[in-house]
Amino acid sequence: MPYRPPLVAHEYFSADPPELPVRAQGEQGLSALVRAEVMASGGDGVTFKASTSAEEVLVVQVGVAGEGVIRVRLGEDVAARTRSARAIEMVRPGRFGGARVEAGEGRVVVDAGAVRAEITLDPWHLRFTDGDGRLLTEQDRGHVDISGRLRTLPFGRSLVEGAAVAYQESLVAQPDEHFGGFGEKFTPLDKRGQRPLMWNFDAFGAESDRSYKNVPFFVSSRGYGLLVDSGMPVEFDLCRATHSCVEIVVPDDLIDYYLIAGPSIPEVLARYDTLTCAPALPPKWAFGSWISSGFFKDSQERVLARARKIRERGIPCDVLHLDCYWQTLGHWSDLRWDAESFPDPEGMLATLREQGFETCLWMNPYVSHLSPDFPDAAAKGYFLKDQDGETYVADSWHGSYPACGIIDLTNPEAVEWFTGLLRGLLRQGVALFKTDFAEGVPSDAVAHNGMSGTELHNVYSLMFNDVVSGVTREVNGHGMVWARSSFLGGQRHSAQWGGDTYTSYPAMGSTIRGGLSHGLSGIPFWSHDAGGFTGTPSDDLYVRWAQFGALSPLVRFHGTTSREPWEFPAVEHLAVEAIRLRYRLMPYIYSAAVEAARTGAPMMRALCVDHPGDPVAWQADLEYLLGRDLLVAPMTSADGTRQVYLPQGEWVDYWTHEVHQGGRYITVTKPLEQIPLFVRHGALIPVTEVRDTVGDGPFTDVAVVAYGGGGSTIIRDVDGDTTITTVRDGDVLRVGVTGPLPITTVEIAPVAGAPATVVVG
């Protein structure tokens, strides 16, 4: 009987990445650096003429790109640029006044203060140390097995039939080294043993190694980060092929990477921001809850009824989201209201604004070939082309919706047309857009500026969000979007959400990992569809996910079926209580948001952010710190029991006020109305009265809750920072306040050993 393979799920995607060429049998094709000589040397870097094992001559540059940042480039000439630079500049190297270059006999040192590059010329070798000389990492010298074959790809490039197809680097990984980052990855947080591919997919959820948002950047537990400047499908091998080596394959015209010093993860992220961009802080109202129409037919009447019901039922909410069906079915996304279902959008938007709601509209950069706008836009060249120069009509919806044209954002006239459509909606009163999709540029497409689809694919998401953010800022004074796809430097687009995840406890767990991974990639403002997207959650899952959402950087209720709390009548009150907890904690949450925007450190902090030397902190990836003082462990089990790892220190159970010693796992069982939540002992947590909306004005009626006494905190608000300091004097807690926010109430949580009385002033 002939062999028949088993039936397996196959994810078809019209924009899968191209495969790298394969060498012919017996073809070596490796051009690895062997030796080098100095061509030019300046105060902030050195250029080398390098000889390779394939008898090629290449150019290496090692220089200072900022305090604590070393840049390494390898290519055919000093003018080589990454292919994505034709569309967008993602990295902007800086300068450091203290940079030094020391050249000696056969050795060169490039000093960037907190990090140094030490180079041996013959044979070529590069190692990185911190400012005190401690080894961070170094180039792998090439693993050769007993047969004489290389098992790693040393610094150089690969050739197939004499043509360069990729550049590569290999760095030594220590046995106890951990790695995090690479964008929104739903796999375990510690990427050791994984092989992340930098290619934006429509990931169909949160339960595979495919990602909507890739960032070619990682942080190491040894106190450094590494950023690769390329929009191509870069591949990282984190100790998978060889357990002592990180390999990087860059199918571009050069390899251009930055070694970024820490030693802490927040310091690495702060330096990363200086190379890319600072995170954009969302408007204050965006930190309130978002309630969506869901992915089904909607109307003006239903939207207004939804808004009334939210207010009548006392559900705190700041944003209403209208998904696909504000447009006419079959005309997505031509950015026109369905005139039959929404006869008076301006009046509707004005009414919602009077009720305290901002409005978000769904859209994407694909225009259905059935849209009345399609023929004219295609004739004017506003869409990507195929290899024959015709409009590329792509299956961007994977067969579930008519094929589309993809707006060519390298064409200035197409951008002008596109922004004109958006501008009109914003002027009607729309607050912002949900920028969906944008992972669908096929590799064989051709852009107006001559770029191939492969070259454009990843950076297209940046260009898309740049355009939408820019026109939103022009009209509304803020540049917020709600984006599904992103790439290197995407922290300038606040905010991003975790895509079309399934409704299950395992999928919620994967979603947590995705948010933590994205936070380690420089993205502070991230969210997810509370309740899950695909399917209908059970009552208990809906509540548990609502609790997770309420203690995330941002929260939106959205799915293929309704996520409105009253559609879950048996547990509506529990979901609303989760939202009310968020609004009570809003001074704490918003303060953490402002700090994240200023520093680049994530709001939703993997435990390794604050405890990088604790190996368990890299593995405990189903929990996180929200800000510095709240430890959140979403209930990922239907039976209401889970293991929670508490880092070093003392932690107070938010609900029972029991004090737990850290540095260990504890078993936590919580009823459906409680999420496992812990407060750092000694923390001061600012809270406020729960209102219908957060709004955009400064906080009023803020109280501070002391968990143990003796400490300080900063409440950050739109009108400035207020510092609260507490000193314990016997059984009295003395409180000092400096700043614009009047604090008249300080509560003492009933924690064992807490002071008995408070004196303010």
From TrEMBL:
<dbReference type="InterPro" id="IPR011013">
    <property type="entry name" value="Gal_mutarotase_sf_dom"/>
</dbReference>
<dbReference type="InterPro" id="IPR000322">
    <property type="entry name" value="Glyco_hydro_31_TIM"/>
</dbReference>
<protein>
    <submittedName>
        <fullName>TIM-barrel domain-containing protein</fullName>
    </submittedName>
</protein>
<dbReference type="InterPro" id="IPR051816">
    <property type="entry name" value="Glycosyl_Hydrolase_31"/>
</dbReference>
<dbReference type="Pfam" id="PF13802">
    <property type="entry name" value="Gal_mutarotas_2"/>
</dbReference>
<keyword id="KW-0378">Hydrolase</keyword>
<dbReference type="Pfam" id="PF01055">
    <property type="entry name" value="Glyco_hydro_31_2nd"/>
</dbReference>
<feature type="domain" description="Glycoside hydrolase family 31 N-terminal">
    <location>
        <begin position="60"/>
        <end position="237"/>
    </location>
</feature>
<dbReference type="InterPro" id="IPR013780">
    <property type="entry name" value="Glyco_hydro_b"/>
</dbReference>
<feature type="domain" description="Glycosyl hydrolase family 31 C-terminal">
    <location>
        <begin position="600"/>
        <end position="685"/>
    </location>
</feature>
<feature type="domain" description="Glycoside hydrolase family 31 TIM barrel">
    <location>
        <begin position="279"/>
        <end position="592"/>
    </location>
</feature>
<dbReference type="Pfam" id="PF21365">
    <property type="entry name" value="Glyco_hydro_31_3rd"/>
</dbReference>
<dbReference type="InterPro" id="IPR025887">
    <property type="entry name" value="Glyco_hydro_31_N_dom"/>
</dbReference>
<dbReference type="InterPro" id="IPR048395">
    <property type="entry name" value="Glyco_hydro_31_C"/>
</dbReference>
<keyword id="KW-0326">Glycosidase</keyword>
<comment type="similarity">
    <text>Belongs to the glycosyl hydrolase 31 family.</text>
</comment>
<dbReference type="InterPro" id="IPR017853">
    <property type="entry name" value="GH"/>
</dbReference>
